[in-house]
Amino acid sequence: GENVEQHPSTLSVQEGDSAVIKCTYSDSASNYFPWYKQELGKRPQLIIDIRSNVGEKKDQRIAVTLNKTAKHFSLHITETQPEDSAVYFCAAGSNTGKLIFGQGTTLQVKP
Amino acid sequence: EAGVAQSPRYKIIEKRQSVAFWCNPISGHATLYWYQQILGQGPKLLIQFQNNGVVDDSQLPKDRFSAERLKGVDSTLKIQPAKLEDSAVYLCASSSLAANTGELFFGEGSRLTVL
Lengths: 111, 115
Prior knowledge:
The complex is a heterodimer. Chain A is mostly beta strands. Chain A is built from no helices and 11 strands.
């Protein structure tokens, strides 16, 4: 069945450093790759997404890259700030509307 | 614009009891999802509705879980009988897209504790 693997499970960086989270997916029909941020006790919220016809997308300090051949995509956060501390989930979706999530990465940004 | 509404927010039951969760999606959203999020894990899709039809329920434990979306708006998720491993947050989400995948808007979740 469809599967999304996410690494690392935890990531600790100093404020101002960059953070990278990587995901791989198994379903070759996947064409939509969002990233969600979930703060403790709150709902997941979309922070950035990319479709399969694009290789990279940027939004201020956040960027996502996609390698369809290798079936992996990554989230890059530059100049990290303490408020970036949260759990980040990658996901993969297809034309059916089905969205499969990765296991999550707990990011800690130390001041 | 009102978000996705879920109730109850918290529920504590004993094993073998039953429980029901309710979700009201964003107005006009065709697709509704129920996800199970166990502590420390990613959301796991239980069931996906498009309007009032089931698109995917391959991960729904049908011997104990059931869900419906009558009239293509509100949805209820029921667990009967509950097991200890059902302790989780049940997240409802909706999307405006009827086909393809787009942004999911999540509710606050219903936290279930099974004792």
